[in-house]
Design brief:
The complex is a heterodimer of chains A (about 325) and B (about 270). Chain A is an alpha/beta fold. Chain A contains ten helices and 14 strands. By secondary structure, chain B is mostly helical. Chain B has helices spanning about 10-35, 35-60, 65-95, 100-105, 110-140, 150-170, 180, 185-195, 205-210, 215-225, 240-265. Classes of the chains: A alpha/beta (about 325), B mainly alpha (about 270).
Chain lengths: ~325, ~270
């Protein structure tokens, strides 16, 4: 991995015109290095797709600059497009064509396409080659989307929720494919709201909220500031009060449940169990979880935003 | 393998790439047309039916030069139904299936996508004109066209206008079914004023309207090219008809320009949410 920015995004804003207008992306900076997978996380409506469309060159930025492989993806579309592959959040194929015919049509529009059979094998659709697109399941269509995106052997892949609608096994398959492409030197920018996907694949990630990037870094860096979580049902009957537990614990109670947040999971869990065993208590639904991307994400999404509420502009 | 500076592709290479992309898209579009019997019947059948009806009146002796009439009528119907109507429905179908949206994320440019989608329709229309010429020569004993270049120019310009009008008309067409309604203004106005009926039947102001319409001008040019006379009978050598040719070409060129502007301005490439 070298440090050349394959994708550079500086100060990008994107407004939707209308009354009321909507500022979907409100000034975003990030860059993606050659050979890495960069994940954009965010709640629905956070602006991921709006941002991605600008980076892909499909939509104009209201302001700011984007460089993909050193070029403006919109003005120098002809130079950029042959070197990138795009999976849109939603797109379609003519339902009266077969899978092979669809891939062949796409291949005909590409500068240096893979053989049709190879592209289908890569997404595990080889068996479905002669089937009509109309007959494909949602997951198979998604894999066809992916086959078409990697058909041109792109240096850069843009994937907008590439595993949405896939069963767990197909998702694993797509992850394997992406890892292989990364090993072969491709650069990937993807959006997802599956935390495990980002945790498992991303070299670096950014969490978007209301049109802004609010956290960015490696998964470890982003998770780093978060606390681990212990939860259990408060035992019924007369129970002695919870002692002060070590590890810097914050306690939340709700309807018979208790949630502890701690900076030192092992220490806190040990003390909790010693206390419970000492009083002969059963802690039902006991659950202990290290800090995870999920926590970091929820911390951002649940915060209501440290940003002002001026997402609607006149 | 990466290069930091890439040589700009030469014009010849660029055109070759364009032709390859249009070829791939139009092959797929032709397959789709073949698998859609209703669209196929509409594109192939409607012009024929139109000509049979006109031919019936030609047999009654009400049309001068039946051979040329058949060619002109067949072309006019083909431009309206095989090209215009057919392309509105197929572009709307591709848009609603999110195919256009996908294509725009690839290497093909907008012009290539439009030409690729229109190629089967254009091929059918031109095929019908050629068949019409053959039929006119064999059945009606039509002589060699007086000016084939005029005929070709009329067909090409007419095709360009109706392809562009079709692309622009998709903006008013939310579904394939709605195409029957949304194409009505262009089809009806073109047929009413299209010059399929003698020009002197049109009173003054309506004649001006007719002369501003693209199909009328296509018909005028074809008639001149096929028969060497205008439809009121003066020959091409006349100064008046040379001026007439220039005016017709100018009107059609203006429609092409307007069509491009309307296409760029109005056509949407993905469904309205």
């Amino acid at each position: 991995m070298d440090i050349t920015g394959v994708i550079d995004v500086v100060g990008v804003r994107r407004d939707y015109k209308g009354r009321p207008g909507f500022e979907a992306v409100r000034g975003v900076n990030f860059s993606v290095r050659r050979g890495e997978l960069f994940a954009l996380l965010g709640t629905n409506g956070a602006g991921k797709t709006s941002l991605l469309e600008v980076v892909e060159g499909l939509a104009p930025a209201t302001s700011g600059t984007v460089r993909v492989l050193g070029h403006d993806p919109r003005r120098q579309r002809r130079v950029v497009r042959p070197r990138v592959g795009i999976v849109l959040q939603e797109s379609g194929c003519p339902s009266d064509l077969s899978v092979t015919e669809t891939v062949r049509m796409s291949a005909g529009t590409l500068t240096a396409p893979r053989p049709v059979g190879e592209a289908l094998e890569l997404v595990d659709l080889g068996r479905r080659a002669r089937v009509g697109v109309r007959q494909l399941s949602g997951g198979e269509r998604r894999r066809l989307d992916l086959a078409l995106a990697i058909l041109g052997r792109p240096e850069v892949l843009f994937l907008d929720e590439p595993t949405s609608g896939l069963d767990p096994e197909s998702r694993q398959g797509v992850w394997r494919l992406l890892r292989n492409l990364l090993d072969a030197g491709s650069t990937v920018l993807l959006t997802t709201h599956h935390m495990d996907e980002a945790e498992s694949l991303a070299d670096r990630l950014a969490i978007m909220h209301r049109g802004l990037i609010v956290r960015t870094g490696t998964p470890a860096e982003v998770v780093g500031g978060q606390s681990a979580r212990i939860s259990f049902n408060w035992p019924p009957g007369a129970v002695p009060p919870l002692p002060v537990l070590p590890g810097g614990v914050a306690v939340e109670r709700s309807r018979g449940g208790v949630v502890l947040r701690t900076g030192d999971l092992q220490l806190t869990v040990s003390a909790l169990l010693v206390w419970a065993n000492g009083h002969d208590l059963r802690l039902h639904n006991l659950n202990a979880r290290s800090a995870s991307l999920q926590e970091a994400f929820l911390a951002v999404a649940g915060s209501g935003g440290d940003q002002s509420d001026q997402e609607w502009v006149a | 393998m990466t290069t930091t500076t890439q040589a700009a592709p030469s014009t010849a290479n660029r055109l070759r790439g364009s032709a390859r992309r249009i070829g791939a898209l139009s092959r797929a579009e032709a397959l789709l047309l073949r698998r859609n019997p209703i669209a196929l019947l509409n594109a192939l059948g409607t012009p024929l039916v139109g000509v049979v009806l006109l031919n019936a009146s030609a047999q009654n002796g009400s049309l001068p030069m039946p051979g040329a009439s058949v060619v002109v009528a067949l072309t006019a119907f083909a431009l309206l139904f095989a090209v215009y109507y057919n392309l509105v429905t197929s572009l709307v179908a591709r848009r609603e299936e999110l195919v256009l949206k996908r294509l725009r994320s690839g290497e093909a440019g907008d012009v290539e996508i439009l030409i690729g989608a229109a190629t089967p329709a254009m091929a059918i229309a031109w095929g019908q004109t050629i068949v019409g010429v053959g039929a006119a020569v064999v059945v009606f004993g039509m002589g060699t066209p007086a000016n084939p270049i005029l005929v070709v120019a009329a067909v090409l310009l007419g095709t360009a206008v109706f392809v562009l009008l079709a692309a622009a008309s998709t903006a008013m067409t939310r579904s394939v079914e709605m195409a029957q309604l949304s194409t009505l203004p262009v089809v009806a106005v073109s047929m009413a004023f299209g010059g399929l009926f003698p020009a002197d039947a049109q009173p003054g102001p309506l004649l001006w309207v007719a002369q501003a319409l693209p199909l009328t001008r296509v018909v005028d040019l074809m008639w001149l090219g096929l028969t060497g006379t205008t439809r009121d009978g003066s020959s091409v050598g006349d100064g008046a008809s040379v001026g007439g040719i220039a005016a017709a070409l100018l009107v059609l060129a203006a429609w092409v320009v307007a069509g491009v502007l309307a296409w760029r301005r109005f056509m949407r490439w993905e469904p309205r949410r």
